[in-house]
Amino acid sequence: MVDEGEIIRVAKLMKIDLEDHTEHVGRVKKMLEYFDILDQIDLSSEEIVSQEKALAELRKDEFVPNDKKLIESLKNFREHYVRAPKMN
Amino acid sequence: MTKIGLEIHCQLTKLESKLFCSCKANYREFEPNHNICPVCMGLPGSLPRLNQKAVESATSIAMALSCKTPEKIAFFRKNYFYPDLPKNFQITQLNVYGDMSIGGEGYVDVEGAKIKIRRIQLEEDPGRLIYEGESERTKITLVDYNRAGTPLVEIVTDPDFENPRQVRVFLNILSDLLENLGVAEPGLEGAMRADGNVSIEGGNKVEIKNIGSFHDLEKALHFEITRQESLSERDIEIVQETRHWDDRRKITISSRSKEEDQDYRYFLENDIPWVKIDQETITSLQKNMPESISSKKERFVEKFDIAPQVADILASDKYYFDLFENAHSDSDAKDIANLITTDLMGFVDTKEKREKSKLTSQHLSDLIAAINDKTLTRTSSKTALQEIVKSGKSVKELLSEMDLGQVSDSSEIENIIMEVFEEEKQAVLDAKENPETVNYLVGKVMQKTKGKADPTKTLELIKSKLG
Amino acid sequence: MNLKTSILDYINDVKSGSFSVEEFTSATIQRIKDVDGDVHAYLSLNESAIDDARAIDKKISAGEKVGTCYGFPISIKDNICITGSKTTCASKILENFVAPYTATVVSKLQSEDAIVTGKTNLDEFAMGLTTEFSAYGPTKNPWNLKYVPGGSSGGSAASVAANECLASLGSDTGGSVRNPASFCSVVGLKPTYGLISRYGLISYANSIEQIGPVTKTVKDCGFLLNVIAGQDSNDDTTIDNANSDYLNDIEQGIEGKNIGIIKEMTSDGLSPEVSSATKNAIQDFEKLGAHCEEVSLPTIPYTVAAYYTITSTEAGSNLARYDNIRYGYDFESEGYEYNSYISKSRTKFGPEVIRRIILGGFVPSAGHAGKYFLKALKVKSKLISEANSAFEKYDYLISPTAPVQPFQFGEKIDDPVTLMLLDYNTVTANLTGKPAISVPYRVTDGLPIGMQIIGDGKSEKSLLQAAYALESKTDLPEVPL
Ligand SMILES: [Zn+2]
User: Fold this and answer.
1) Which CATH number covers residue C154?
2) Are A14 and C358 in contact (CB under 8 A)?
3) Which of B10, B130, B256, C124 shows the greatest Cβ crowding within 10 Å of its Cβ?
4) pLDDT in tens, A3-44
5) What ipTM, to 2 d.p.?
6) How far, in Å, CA of C247 to CA of C220, rounded?
7) What's the pLDDT tens digit per position in C318-343?
8) Which of A12, A68, A81 to mutate to test the interface with B (most CBs of B within 10 A)?
9) How far apart are CA B435 and CA B429, in angstroms?
10) How confident is the model at residue B258 (pLDDT cuts 50, 70, 90)?
11) What is each CA distance from C264 to B253, B311, C181, C292, C400, in whole angstroms?
12) Phi, psi of C444, rounded to the nearest 5 degrees
């Protein structure tokens, strides 16, 4: 059984405000319970796989200045700094 | 027993571009947020593109630290929210599906002790936060993302250090090694940073973060050891925690954020395929790797009969090494080595002085040549070096302009000897009695000629005059 | 002028002078004005489409070199970036996001003189199967406006089906191109992972998703693939396709080919209509000279759980960047502390996105990864092995694209597990990285049914030959709109 308090705690870590949205908790719980099916399959001999690439195929080390003044199309404060909310 | 471990972060500033985009790796000369692009700003729809040379440079570091390097490397996402992280995750490395970070299981010899390197990983530096405003109330947080995505190598040691002094020696060795490899400039502000962890006999491990410089690291370690010892003496438990170095008060303080709340949800960064590093690549990196500091030192001592302490300076300081290697021939190596370590060092012992200096290795070989063919005395070389560092003038120019040329004309020297004999009558008598005191008279002649008289010839002439 | 035409016929008509690019473009825009109020396939329109058309006409009349697309109108799913235009992902959080760059696929289309009509609707951040999760209202199925068009590329499929363009680009994470293609009776392809650049596609679950073409015919799909496929220096995951020509030999047929009917996707859970259509399709494949037999991939029952575990993990991470600090909407940070500011900002996410982000925080977390995320990755590995051995024996694997026909709005949205299971037949291609295509096969009771053909990695050329063969066996009615 998935603990609802745990779902609420995780939501907070993901910066999701669940105030007045308890219906999400129930729905997430249902999905997690469906995932229990993963307990029924034998995966003991499986390895994790991924796409692979040769070192030589990677990007060459060259400086290419970004032609646009990107910061001007983003939120910026004075002197082109980005302002973040107050850190505690 | 005290155990200290380190986590060192070193930027690969010798690269042209960032780890995953083509912005400049060394961000230091840009206006705020003018070294950014959609990739390092994590704009939606952008994808990271791994820098080949960053992988090679980091692998070279691993090899230079005697690490094992894997056949495939993988990147992971470390997920956490912070305003200096444009994507709110950092692309880094981890060894969860086998050893797939740049390297591991290496070591460094520190004065006979073996410091084990647990892991080396390649990752992106975050941006920089700047706090403005005086009081807590008016304080605002500004972010400059120019640094975001700068290639960073993290080196993690085992807790093998026994005291802060050993840490200092290790860090010196490590920064010389990184500089020698030509991949990093540890002297640049913020280019090399270290966090430490400390535990004493019977106590838990305490991590110390937020340390600004190596100097502060040593202080922080000292403080932390004393703090833990005093707790231990009073039978108070040393809790496992992360503490921050308070630079102003020079103490460590417990971090407010609880570690157990952090869950980085590491998982594979699938936008970057696993990179295969074949044996051929390793061999070629090995071949192109600069000679190690210890091998340089050995070579200087054996081949040129240079004194071990002189060889040590030339081998470990890349600036002196480059000067030396470009200046010397087999026959004048020892002279050039001594010229660098006795006469030059005081003029170029800081980064600022080196940047301003106009001296080239050509100057050094020319100077030694001038000394050897006796157009310049050994004693004048220091004056000459000072001028060269300042103006960059050629040795030839200097010899004519500054009147540094050696006086080897016999009649000119004889005239000066006559003057000295006139002034130093007692000394002349002494020298006649006891030939060993003749050097006093030679010294007087050298003084009068400001060191320009050919010393051999002077001695010869004095001896013949004394009869 | 016939807006129901295919790309290939359109190009012939423009070349022969039957009509100008501008005439066709204007007619298309008129069509959008006429029907999109009902269909709601588009979120925004390209205001300069007519100018673009004139420019191409000018090139044609001047005898200059014209791109292979000859100005045919194409719509683009609104999670694919185009410089200077809004890319919203059908989310309020990106309401004002204007990308400073163009996706590789769109650049390729533009350099071959295709005309972008506009950006199409989707489930918010492509998370859904009905477009009911769009923050800007759902798209309707052109075959019956009371029914869902499928998703998440519902706007793309509907825009093609309703003749509001000749083709569209969608994205397919777990069936998001094939499912709406099936529901709207158009062709939809999910290519081999890495065949098409994802540069400029806003990531949902980047390890398995691909951009895919939505077209009226299989040949058009091949044509579009010729334009957009291939390695891209902006996407390290793209693969070399050796400049394949996907149109060449498309009529070759499938005589003597071996087809595996995927047991797990054809036994339980199919509606009677879909089941009967599938049986007919198998007969058609036999008539075309292929040999069909049942094949089992026993891991398939676990794939939906694995799929949702992997996608929510990646989504939780990919969507973390939307903190409203560097870009986003106007919301003053004064008076807020960092954590509360970004949590407040992120309330702009819609309900399904919120749920997937929470799941994405849960399943890979230190305490739960062993139970969920690592198992999901291993299910993926196991499935790949099973698929690879199946392709040693079979040229193609088949199933219906969706287990059911389109359903009415609101019918399934309240049950998360029912919704997840709609992906049952499509997620296998994403988890294995194999290409899969949905071919319109039937219209029963006025609602479409599509058949899915899965090929081995990088076998798009042969996959399209099979799709073309099946298409040639069908005779479908026209959309009643
Ligand atoms: Zn950049």
Assistant:
1) 3.90.1300.10
2) yes
3) C124
4) 888 888 899 999 998 876 678 889 999 999 999 999 999 999
5) 0.95
6) 8
7) 999 999 999 988 888 888 899 999 99
8) A81
9) 10
10) low
11) 60, 74, 22, 15, 11
12) -115, 130
Judged on CB neighbours under 10 Å (0-12, 13-18, 19+), C43 is buried
C243 inside 8 A of chain B by CB:
no
How does residue B212 score in pLDDT terms, banded at 50, 70 and 90?
confident
Contact between B273 and C237 using a beta-carbon 8 Å cutoff: yes
- Given a contact cutoff of 8 angstroms between Cβ atoms, the answer to whether B24 and B178 are in contact is no
pLDDT at B402 over 70: no
Annotated domain spans of chain A = 4-39
Over residues B425-438, mean pLDDT: 83
- Range of the structural domain that residue C461 is part of: 7-251+437-471
Q: What SS3 string covers C275-326?
A: HHHHHHHHHHHHHCCCEEEEECCCCHHHHHHHHHHHHHHHHHHHHHHCCCCC
State how far the alpha carbon of C191 is from the alpha carbons of B93, B236, C102, C210, in Å.
Answer: 30, 63, 21, 7
* Strand pairing report for C73-77 and B113-124: unpaired
**Tokens at B87, concatenated:** 């994507």
Q: Do A56 and B52 touch (CB under 8 A)?
A: yes
Name the average pLDDT for chain C.
Answer: 96
State which H helix or E strand residue C273 sits in: helix C272-287
Strands C187-190 and C291-295 come out as unpaired
Q: What is the pLDDT of residues C345-365, one digit of tens each?
A: 999 999 999 999 999 999 999
- Chain C nearest CA to A20, separation (Å): 11
- The pLDDT tens digits for B276-325 are 999 999 999 989 888 877 788 888 888 888 888 888 888 888 888 888 88
**Domains annotated on chain B, with CATH:** 3-282 (no CATH), 291-401 (no CATH), 410-466 (1.10.10)
Which residues of chain B make contact with C316, given a CB cutoff of 8 A?
79, 265
Helix (H, G, I), strand (E, B) or coil at B433: helix
What type of residue sits at position C384?
A: I
* pTM, two decimal places: 0.88
Does the residue C337 lie in any domain? no
> Rounded CA gap, B37 and A65, in Å?
8
Angle at B308 between CA B305 and CA B312, to 5 degrees: 120
Structure confidence at residue B407 as a pLDDT band (50, 70, 90): low
Q: What is the pLDDT of residue B261?
A: 61
What is chain B's Cα-based Rg?
29
Q: Is residue C391 part of a domain?
A: no
Are residues C327 and A74 in contact, defined by beta-carbon separation less than 8 angstroms? yes
Q: Which runs of consecutive H residues, i.e. helices, occur in B138-233?
A: 164-180, 214-233
For residue C151 the two structure tokens come to 């998703």
Q: Per the domain annotation, does C204 fall within a domain?
A: yes
Q: Which positions 269-308 of B are in contact with A (Cβ < 8 Å)?
A: 270, 273-278, 281
Peptide bond into C152 cis (omega under 30): yes
Active site residue C18: no
For residue B369, report the phi and psi dihedrals to the nearest 5 degrees: -60, -40
- Per-residue pLDDT at C161: 98
B40-54, B67-81, B248-262, C454-468: segment of lowest average pLDDT = B248-262
Residue B400 has pLDDT above 60, yes or no: yes
Facing residues of C453 across strands? C398, C437
Which chains touch C (3+ CB pairs under 8 A)?
A: A, B
Tokens 């491990």 map to which residue?
B205
Provide the number of structural domains found in chain C.
1
Contacts of C250 (CB under 8 A, 6+ apart): C218, C219, C222, C464, C465, C468
C174: CB partners within 8 A, 6+ apart: C205, C208, C307, C311, C423, C426, C427, C430
Residue C114 placed within a domain: yes
